[in-house]
Amino acid sequence: MYITIKSLWGRHKNKSLVARMTGHDWKTIAKKIKEIEGGKEYPTKKPHPRILDPYQEQIMEWLEEDLSGVRIHEKIQEEGARAGYSTVKDYIC
User: Fold this and answer.
1) Burial of 85 (0-12, 13-18, 19+ CB in 10 A)
2) Is the pLDDT of residue 90 over 80?
3) How many other C-beta atoms can be found within 10 angstroms of the C-beta atom of residue 1?
4) pLDDT tens for residues 55-79?
5) Are 57 and 21 in contact, with CB atoms under 8 Å apart?
6) Domain edges within the chain
7) Which 3 state secondary structure label does DSSP give 60?
8) Cα 41 to Cα 2, 6, 54, 93, distances in angstroms
C-alpha cells in the first residue's frame, strides 16, 4: 500500500483519485501522504532466521561433494531437521 500510494502521489494524482484507484478510504490515503511528506520511510521487515541456518556449513560440504538436493534433504532429515525438500532446494539454489 505504501509504495503504491507514494508512486501515485509522486505522479501528481490527487488524494481522491488515489483512494479510488487503491480502494482505500481517502482519510487513510491522506494519513499516508502526510507520513510520506514528513519523511517517514517504508517499514522494513526484520530478518528471521531460516530453518537450515544451523546446517549451513554441513550443506556447503555436501554441495562440494556433488550430492544432489534430494540426497542433501535425506541427510538433513537424518540430522534431525524438520525441513521439506522444497525448503532445502530453495536454500541451496
Assistant:
1) middle
2) yes
3) 11
4) 999 999 999 898 999 999 999 999 8
5) no
6) 2-37, 53-92
7) helix
8) 9, 10, 33, 31
